[in-house]
Each structure stands twice: as C-alpha cells, then as structure tokens.
Amino acid sequence: MNTEKSYDAGYNAGLDALEVCSKSRANEKDALAGLMTVVMHAAYAMAPSEEMAEEIITWAQQTALENWIKEKGDE
User: Fold this and answer.
1) How far is CA 22 from CA 14, 39, 57, 68, in A?
2) Tens-digit pLDDT profile for residues 29-54
3) CB of 32 closer than 8 Å to CB of 21
4) pLDDT at 75 over 90
C-alpha cells in the first residue's frame, strides 16, 4: 500500500472515530483528548524509536494546523 493510501486510511478512521465520539454525546474536549491519547500512544508503540514517534506527532500537528488554516480561509 502506498503512503497516500495509508494516510487516507488513517485519516478516514479518525473521521469515523470522531463520529463515534459525537454520537456518544460525550464532552467534546474530553472525547478528543481520549482519542488523541490513543493515537499518540500508538505512535510511540509502533514507531522504531521515541524520536521517530515525536517526528510523526509533530508532522501530524503541523499538517492539522495547515489544513485548519486553509479551511478557515475558505469560509
């Protein structure tokens, strides 16, 4: 599987997880914190090193911010 397809699979799984959180009527902040904790834990557990996990997390954070800024600008 190529990088783009793998990224899309994870991205879509995240959207599904957000939908589950929303339908649960949980407090959004708490549900999001739980979801982010699971994903970051997985990054540390699956990466070959702590440094690589932190690179993945940092890249994801930067990408999320860039996407949010673009989305906000399109409104």
Assistant:
1) 12, 17, 24, 19
2) 999 999 999 999 999 999 999 999 99
3) yes
4) no
* Start-end of H helices in the chain: 3-23, 28-46, 50-74
Structure tokens at 68: 């949010």
Q: In this structure, which amino acid lies at residue 14? A: G
What span, in angstroms and rounded, lies between the C-alpha atoms of 20 and 34? Answer: 12
Task: Report domain extents, the chain.
Answer: 3-74
- Asked whether the whole model's pTM tops 0.85, one would answer no
pLDDT at 54: 97
Query: 53 with 44: CB under 8 angstroms?
Result: yes
Inter-residue contact 14 to 34 (CB < 8 Å): no
